[in-house]
Amino acid sequence: MPDQEVTYKSAGVDIDAMTGAIHRMKESLRSTFNESVLTDVGAFGGMYSLGRLGESEPVLVSSIDGVGTKVKIAALTGRYDTIGADLVNHCVNDILALGARPLFFLDYFATSKLDRDVLTEVVKGMAKACRAADCALIGGETAEMPSVYCEGEFDLAGCIVGVVDRSRIVDGTKVSAGDVLVGVASSGLHTNGYSLVRKLLLEECGMRIDQYVPELAKTLGDELLEPHRCYYKPVRTILANHDVHAMAHLTGGGFYDNIPRVLPEDCQVTIERRSWARQPIFNLIQERGAISEKEMYHTFNMGVGLVMIVPKEQAIGIVAELDDLGETAWIIGEVHKGGREVAVL
Q1: Interval 306-342: pLDDT, tens
Q2: Domain span at residue 317?
Q3: Based on CB atoms within 10 Å of each CB, which residue in 3, 60, 135, 273 is the most buried?
Q4: Are residues 38 and 76 in the same domain?
Q5: What is the separation of C-alpha 254 from the centre of its chain, rounded to a whole number of angstroms?
Q6: pLDDT confidence of 48, banded at 50, 70, 90?
């Protein structure tokens, strides 16, 4: 028999701390609510009314994702105000690629031992990104698992649900030879390639996370924590004014894995890599690691976070309109007859 009572807290899980953290987050969570949210913080499930959607034939679109090992960069810098926005923006862009607008979002935060300040900052970032995308943060899960995660570690994932009218789904079926690719600028690495970046820059090259890097004009940590860009509002405007045949969110797998996902079987694309200016972080990674061009374009977004495949005659107008909306965009390639492949020239 143990000398003293064994409790959940003595086993490493502090329920009172979780309850206190949720109480501190209520204001952030409620700031994302709208008239469709029917439950308050703390309910066993989040309820969202579909009565005000407005689409004539609504189709729900869902996605689930994480931010990978970018959480380790947040921990190294002690900055947690952007990692939540990374998660939301990544998920918003994923369903946006099908033409959907976000409705609601749920998160999963797991850690060895709950730090209420860390969780509060992460959730504030999520709430801010949700508000910007007109998306309700209606629930989530916070888990303390001391035997699964090492001390000080945490993981972050999220699930999003959106809606698109069936007649306005963007699924690539209209893509044909002669279409062109419009690339919309990323804000840097977004949320992909961090395992390679940490191994190369921090371990092999011995760079410090707080080191000022002249090529970047900022510290390495500031560059690596640059938030994942959200394309929701400018792209919704483009969708309302132009004919977009397909969109690809360039995440893990870069150009070679993501663009083929939206191509018909008889189409391939060529990308002209000299048609846009990539951010200095990509040059730094490639030079320090002597990484091949193909590996770079297979791992990173290389300065293009979203690709839109559009009719050739509309491309220049779309680029100009994106510029008016505050986005940087370029015509970066063309669709040809072929076998669902990508060639970066």
Answers
A1: 999 999 999 999 999 999 999 999 999 999 999 999 9
A2: 180-344
A3: 135
A4: yes
A5: 13
A6: confident
Predicted structure pTM score: 0.91
Structural tokens at position 81: 């105000």
pLDDT digits (tens, 9 = 90+) for 141-159: 988 888 888 888 899 999 9
- Residues 155 and 241 reside in one and the same domain: no
Same domain, 31 and 156: yes
User: What CATH number corresponds to the domain at position 32?
Assistant: 3.30.1330.10
Main-chain phi, psi angles of 197, to 5 degrees = -65, -45
Same domain, 119 and 185: no
Q: What are phi and psi of 286, to 5 degrees?
A: -65, -40
Task: Copy the structure tokens of residue 331.
Answer: 């015509």
Contacts 24+ apart (CB under 8 A), 199-204: 200/285, 200/288, 200/289, 201/284, 201/285, 201/288, 204/289
Nearest C-alpha neighbor of 117 from the set 20, 210, 222? 20
CB atoms under 10 Å from CB of 86, counted, come to 29
For residue 29, pLDDT over 70 is answered with yes
Residue with tokens 């999003």: 160
Instruction: End-to-end CA distance of the chain: give it in Å, rounded.
Output: 70
Question: Is 175 contained in some domain?
Answer: no
